[in-house]
Amino acid sequence: MRIRYISVIPLVLATLSAFAQTAAPPRAATAAAGAAGVPLPTANGRSLLRSINAGKQLGDEMDCMVEPRQVSSVGSAVEGSLAEVLVDRGSFVTKGQVLARLKSPVEMATVALRDAQARFGERKVERNQELFRKELISANEKDELETQTRLAKLELAQQLANLDQRTIRSPFAGVVVERYMSPGEHVSNDKILKLAEIDPLNVEVVAPVELFGSIRAGMTGEVRLAPLISGVYKARVSAIDKVIDAASGTFGVRLELPNRGGRIPAGIKCNVRILPGK
After folding, report:
1. CA 143-149-153 angle, 5° bins
2. What is the band of 107 on the pLDDT scale with cuts at 50, 70, 90?
3. What are residue 100's DSSP bridge partners?
4. Could you tell me if 212 and 218 are in contact, meaning their C-beta atoms sit under 8 angstroms apart?
5. Distance between CA atoms of residues 106 and 109, nearest Å
6. Least confident piece of the model among 50-54, 70-74, 181-185, 199-203
7. What is the reported pTM?
8. Cα distances (angstroms) measured from residue 12 to each of 170, 178, 215
9. Cα separation of 8 and 18, whole Å?
10. Nearest-CA neighbor of 158 among 98, 111, 96, 120?
11. What is the average pLDDT value for the chain, to the nearest integer?
12. Is pLDDT of 254 > 70?
């Protein structure tokens, strides 16, 4: 009896080939999906926004995002221990308002010492004016006394500046977003507070490249914040990117939205219609 050996290798290869053709979409189908507007994976995240605002013309509504005008992480210019933090999360602050202070017993004592020396020098100079007129002291001695007094005043000014550095003030009017530290903690290169300026707000738009040149600084935009906040708010185009994002075919546009009283929160989505003309 003769046994016949049948090779199964060709059969396995044929099966795998058929499975691969079924699982992988044809290149033509992939290209068609891209042409139909289905977002394909790209290295730039703006592709999604471009698909949202693609084909929009001047005067059409475009998706946008409301952001703070600026955000700052506030720390201390010098190292030390926190004596007090005067604001907390959600607090409104004004420009120059004291936010926190470092412990400063040594610096305050030094200021008091320099102030006493400067005042003593002033009195000494006044007393010696009469002695100089009576020629009881020389011009050199008079000049030396006056110079010592000027140096004492400069040292006082220096110590006052050192003391002032231990008081942390707000760089702009805004709101406290986050508080990172509490009294007693040591401050070096640490963030104490995070502030955001919310009047005015920035309205950020990713516009299709076809609108480049049509949108100009100073144009008016109508911003809608529904469903969170009803109504239409006027904004003004304040900045236009001068570099096109080649990967997504978009460019950035920023509008300035007044927000007196902080009624509009930052970080929300919006719709904007940029009106032709100014």
Report:
1. 145
2. very high
3. 85, 168
4. no
5. 5
6. 50-54
7. 0.69
8. 73, 63, 62
9. 16
10. 111
11. 82
12. yes
Distance from the Cα of residue 249 to its chain's centroid: 26
CA 162 to CA 38: how far, in whole Å? 60
CB proximity list for 75: less than 8 A, separation 6 or greater: 168, 187, 189, 190, 191, 192
**Bond before 265 cis per omega within 30 degrees:** no
Compare 25 and 234 and report the one with higher pLDDT.
Answer: 234
Confidence at 171, pLDDT banded by 50, 70, 90: very high
- Return the closest-CA partner of residue 170 out of 103, 92, 107, 261: 92
- At a CB cut-off of 8 Å and minimum separation 6, what does 276 contact? 58, 59, 214, 219
Which two three-digit tokens encode residue 162?
A: 């050192």
Phi, psi (rounded to 5 degrees) for 22: -75, -40
Give the rounded percent of residues in the chain with a pLDDT score beyond 70: 79
Tokens 């400063």: give the residue. Answer: 104
**What pLDDT is attached to residue 142?**
79
Model confidence at 45, in pLDDT bands (50, 70, 90)?
Answer: very low
Instruction: Judge whether residue 2 has pLDDT over 50.
Output: no
- Nearest 10 degrees: CA dihedral of 148, 150, 153, 158? -100
* Integer Cα distance of 258 and 213 in angstroms: 25
Calculate the alpha carbon distances from 114 to 106, 118, 122, 151, 166 in Å.
12, 6, 12, 10, 18
